[in-house]
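I have been asked to look over a protein record a colleague put together. The record follows directly below this note.
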Amino acid sequence: MKKVISIDIGGTFIKYGLVNEAGTVLCKDKRATVKSGAEDFVNELCEIVNLYNDHSDVLGVSISMPGFINNRAGIPIACSHLRFIENYKLQDELASRTNLEVRVENDANCVALAEKFSGNATECEDFICVTIGTGIGGGIYLNNKLIRGKQFKGGEFCYMMTKDKEGHQILSQNSSITALIDMYKEYKKLDKTVEVLGDEIFKEAETDENVENIIHEWYGNIARMIFNLSSILNPEKILIGGGVSAREDLIYQLENALKEIPWWHFVECKLEKCKHENDAGLIGAAYNFINP
């Protein structure tokens, strides 16, 4: 069975491995993301590809990465965590250096592709993936097709405005894990430089009613996003991925928050977690290569 070298690039780590045509991750590893410039960054990717030189059955290289990605040309148009790679002809350069076919796609789109490939949306023609972590990402699948948009910005839910607070406020400012941490720091009157982990907040909520209320408000923000997406696109499912999906009570909490919206029953859809969790980028990238 043929294999794809899958590379999932994040702001902190690069995850990589071999994925076969059935969507099985055969091996994987990770290393710190190089941020010293485009040349060093591409050299690092070449080193990763060279790890699999002895595999004669490799079809090519497929990359999942954050930002607005021109998937046709393989060019990152905007990438907030990796500014140095913006407008760089990544696909062409890596293909030239490795003599392999290369494809590049947005990371949240890859999550949607992974769920369609072998996850919780294999039988769905219309579904949405929402990734909730440091920021908010999204992938839209309609009429059995991934929606990328005219300027490759489809599914950028982070820019959705869900409420107005001291001027305009977008979704990433009130519904991401970063937003939850900021809300907690504001309540605790902590300096913005103080490190706080999301898990610590959920733990403290068990004994502090005010922290519990902060989390309830945060879930409400996410619920409004889900409501808006469901009312506009009428999907069969909305799948939740990203770091927050590790919480066992996630779907229960979101469903309760949605029930507080009086019109939810008019536009209601099924809510589930994404299946592939940390392997979603690798699997989705492989699927993007196999089914362009």
